Amino acid sequence: MAVGKYKYYFKKPKSEITKDVFRWLMITGVVAIATTSPYFINNLLSARKRFGKYPKQKIQNTFYKFKKQGLISIRQENHQIYISLTEEGRKKAGWLQIDSLKIVKPKRWDKKWRLVVFDIAQTKKLSREAFRGKLKEIGFHPFQKSIWIHPFDCRAEIELLRKFFSLSDKELSLITAENIGNDADWQKIFKLV
Question: What is the 3-state secondary structure (H, E, C) of 2-20?
Fold first, then answer.
Protein backbone atom coordinates (compact mmCIF):
# COMPACT_ATOMS: atom_id res chain seq x y z
CA MET A 1 0.00 0.00 0.00
CA ALA A 2 1.45 3.34 -0.96
CA VAL A 3 1.65 6.02 1.68
CA GLY A 4 1.99 9.32 -0.10
CA LYS A 5 5.06 8.95 -2.24
CA TYR A 6 6.56 6.40 0.15
CA LYS A 7 5.88 2.71 0.54
CA TYR A 8 6.03 0.67 3.69
CA TYR A 9 9.49 -0.75 4.13
CA PHE A 10 8.25 -4.32 4.33
CA LYS A 11 7.38 -6.52 1.40
CA LYS A 12 3.81 -7.75 1.37
CA PRO A 13 3.05 -11.16 -0.07
CA LYS A 14 1.24 -10.97 -3.39
CA SER A 15 -0.45 -14.35 -3.53
CA GLU A 16 -3.78 -14.95 -1.83
CA ILE A 17 -2.69 -18.32 -0.45
CA THR A 18 0.24 -16.67 1.33
CA LYS A 19 -2.12 -14.09 2.85
CA ASP A 20 -4.58 -16.82 3.89
CA VAL A 21 -1.87 -18.93 5.53
CA PHE A 22 -0.50 -15.91 7.42
CA ARG A 23 -4.01 -14.91 8.56
CA TRP A 24 -4.80 -18.44 9.67
CA LEU A 25 -1.59 -18.80 11.66
CA MET A 26 -1.98 -15.34 13.23
CA ILE A 27 -5.52 -16.09 14.37
CA THR A 28 -4.93 -19.62 15.60
CA GLY A 29 -1.45 -19.17 17.04
CA VAL A 30 -0.40 -22.82 16.95
CA VAL A 31 -2.04 -25.35 14.68
CA ALA A 32 -2.09 -29.01 15.67
CA ILE A 33 -2.67 -31.54 12.91
CA ALA A 34 -2.96 -35.28 13.43
CA THR A 35 -0.18 -37.30 11.83
CA THR A 36 -1.95 -40.64 12.04
CA SER A 37 -2.07 -40.62 8.27
CA PRO A 38 0.84 -39.89 5.95
CA TYR A 39 -1.34 -37.39 4.09
CA PHE A 40 -0.23 -34.20 5.83
CA ILE A 41 -1.80 -31.87 3.26
CA ASN A 42 -5.15 -33.71 3.40
CA ASN A 43 -5.13 -33.37 7.18
CA LEU A 44 -4.21 -29.73 6.80
CA LEU A 45 -7.09 -29.18 4.37
CA SER A 46 -9.55 -30.82 6.73
CA ALA A 47 -8.24 -28.60 9.52
CA ARG A 48 -8.87 -25.50 7.44
CA LYS A 49 -11.59 -25.67 4.77
CA ARG A 50 -10.58 -22.31 3.30
CA PHE A 51 -7.49 -23.86 1.74
CA GLY A 52 -9.72 -26.19 -0.28
CA LYS A 53 -9.88 -23.58 -3.04
CA TYR A 54 -6.14 -23.98 -3.66
CA PRO A 55 -4.39 -26.88 -5.37
CA LYS A 56 -2.78 -29.19 -2.82
CA GLN A 57 0.66 -28.71 -4.38
CA LYS A 58 0.37 -24.94 -3.97
CA ILE A 59 -0.49 -25.32 -0.27
CA GLN A 60 2.43 -27.68 0.25
CA ASN A 61 4.79 -25.30 -1.57
CA THR A 62 3.62 -22.36 0.56
CA PHE A 63 4.30 -24.21 3.82
CA TYR A 64 7.65 -25.45 2.50
CA LYS A 65 8.60 -21.89 1.47
CA PHE A 66 7.60 -20.50 4.88
CA LYS A 67 9.64 -23.21 6.64
CA LYS A 68 12.68 -22.58 4.41
CA GLN A 69 12.47 -18.80 5.07
CA GLY A 70 12.23 -19.38 8.83
CA LEU A 71 8.72 -17.90 9.03
CA ILE A 72 7.11 -20.98 10.59
CA SER A 73 8.24 -23.74 12.86
CA ILE A 74 6.94 -27.26 12.41
CA ARG A 75 7.48 -29.82 15.13
CA GLN A 76 6.11 -33.31 15.65
CA GLU A 77 5.12 -34.59 19.06
CA ASN A 78 2.83 -37.46 20.14
CA HIS A 79 1.29 -38.10 16.72
CA GLN A 80 0.62 -34.39 16.19
CA ILE A 81 2.29 -31.83 13.99
CA TYR A 82 2.42 -28.34 15.48
CA ILE A 83 2.76 -25.40 13.11
CA SER A 84 3.32 -21.88 14.41
CA LEU A 85 4.74 -18.57 13.25
CA THR A 86 8.28 -17.84 14.36
CA GLU A 87 9.23 -14.39 15.66
CA GLU A 88 10.32 -13.48 12.14
CA GLY A 89 7.05 -14.86 10.77
CA ARG A 90 5.02 -12.72 13.20
CA LYS A 91 6.94 -9.65 12.07
CA LYS A 92 6.30 -10.44 8.41
CA ALA A 93 2.63 -11.13 9.10
CA GLY A 94 2.26 -7.89 11.04
CA TRP A 95 1.26 -6.06 7.85
CA LEU A 96 -2.09 -7.89 7.97
CA GLN A 97 -2.99 -6.20 11.24
CA ILE A 98 -1.62 -2.87 10.04
CA ASP A 99 -3.56 -2.98 6.77
CA SER A 100 -6.86 -3.62 8.52
CA LEU A 101 -6.22 -1.16 11.34
CA LYS A 102 -8.96 1.36 12.08
CA ILE A 103 -10.18 3.38 15.03
CA VAL A 104 -13.73 2.58 16.05
CA LYS A 105 -15.98 5.61 16.48
CA PRO A 106 -17.91 5.37 19.75
CA LYS A 107 -21.59 6.33 20.00
CA ARG A 108 -20.68 9.31 22.14
CA TRP A 109 -17.45 11.29 22.14
CA ASP A 110 -15.83 11.51 25.57
CA LYS A 111 -14.67 15.10 24.81
CA LYS A 112 -11.00 14.11 25.06
CA TRP A 113 -8.32 14.51 22.43
CA ARG A 114 -5.59 12.00 21.64
CA LEU A 115 -2.28 13.49 20.62
CA VAL A 116 0.39 11.28 19.10
CA VAL A 117 3.80 12.87 19.56
CA PHE A 118 6.67 11.31 17.68
CA ASP A 119 10.33 12.06 17.14
CA ILE A 120 11.70 9.44 14.76
CA ALA A 121 15.34 9.85 13.73
CA GLN A 122 16.36 10.91 10.23
CA THR A 123 18.06 7.53 9.85
CA LYS A 124 14.58 5.96 10.04
CA LYS A 125 13.10 8.33 7.47
CA LEU A 126 11.22 5.64 5.57
CA SER A 127 9.66 4.31 8.80
CA ARG A 128 8.77 7.84 9.86
CA GLU A 129 7.01 8.59 6.57
CA ALA A 130 5.19 5.24 6.59
CA PHE A 131 4.12 5.83 10.21
CA ARG A 132 2.88 9.33 9.38
CA GLY A 133 1.01 7.97 6.36
CA LYS A 134 -0.65 5.29 8.48
CA LEU A 135 -1.76 7.90 11.03
CA LYS A 136 -3.41 9.85 8.23
CA GLU A 137 -5.00 6.68 6.85
CA ILE A 138 -6.65 5.81 10.20
CA GLY A 139 -8.09 9.29 10.60
CA PHE A 140 -5.49 11.40 12.41
CA HIS A 141 -4.85 15.00 11.38
CA PRO A 142 -1.59 16.92 11.83
CA PHE A 143 -1.72 19.21 14.85
CA GLN A 144 1.89 20.21 14.27
CA LYS A 145 4.66 18.57 12.24
CA SER A 146 5.27 15.66 14.61
CA ILE A 147 2.07 15.88 16.63
CA TRP A 148 -1.09 14.33 15.23
CA ILE A 149 -4.58 14.47 16.73
CA HIS A 150 -7.64 12.22 16.94
CA PRO A 151 -10.79 12.49 19.09
CA PHE A 152 -11.34 8.80 19.91
CA ASP A 153 -9.58 6.24 22.06
CA CYS A 154 -6.74 4.68 20.06
CA ARG A 155 -4.35 3.24 22.64
CA ALA A 156 -4.46 -0.28 21.19
CA GLU A 157 -3.97 0.97 17.63
CA ILE A 158 -1.02 3.20 18.56
CA GLU A 159 0.56 0.38 20.56
CA LEU A 160 0.24 -1.91 17.54
CA LEU A 161 1.90 0.74 15.35
CA ARG A 162 4.64 1.20 17.97
CA LYS A 163 5.45 -2.50 17.88
CA PHE A 164 5.18 -2.78 14.13
CA PHE A 165 7.52 0.14 13.46
CA SER A 166 9.79 -0.81 16.43
CA LEU A 167 9.44 2.61 18.08
CA SER A 168 10.67 3.25 21.60
CA ASP A 169 8.88 5.27 24.30
CA LYS A 170 11.26 8.13 23.48
CA GLU A 171 10.24 8.04 19.83
CA LEU A 172 6.46 7.81 20.33
CA SER A 173 4.04 9.05 22.98
CA LEU A 174 0.26 9.13 23.21
CA ILE A 175 -1.20 11.97 25.26
CA THR A 176 -4.86 12.35 26.21
CA ALA A 177 -6.00 15.95 26.73
CA GLU A 178 -9.30 17.57 27.61
CA ASN A 179 -8.45 21.02 26.30
CA ILE A 180 -6.22 21.81 23.33
CA GLY A 181 -7.04 25.50 22.98
CA ASN A 182 -8.96 25.57 19.72
CA ASP A 183 -11.39 22.71 20.36
CA ALA A 184 -14.19 24.19 18.22
CA ASP A 185 -12.06 24.14 15.06
CA TRP A 186 -11.00 20.54 15.64
CA GLN A 187 -14.57 19.49 16.40
CA LYS A 188 -15.56 20.80 12.96
CA ILE A 189 -12.66 18.99 11.27
CA PHE A 190 -13.66 15.69 12.88
CA LYS A 191 -17.40 16.41 12.37
CA LEU A 192 -18.16 16.17 16.08
CA VAL A 193 -20.57 19.13 16.06
Answer: EECCEECCCCCCCCHHHHH
Report yes or no on whether pTM surpasses 0.85.
no
Q: Are the C-beta atoms of 66 and 25 separated by less than 8 Å?
A: no
- pLDDT tens across the length of the chain (193 residues): 334 333 343 444 557 777 777 766 765 655 555 444 455 555 555 555 556 677 777 877 888 888 898 888 878 777 777 778 888 887 777 766 777 788 999 999 999 999 999 999 888 888 888 899 999 999 999 999 899 999 999 999 999 888 888 899 999 999 999 999 889 999 999 999 8
The number of CA neighbours under 13 Å toward the Cβ of 181 is 2
Residues 134 and 172 sit within 8 Å (Cβ to Cβ): no
End-to-end CA distance of the chain: 32
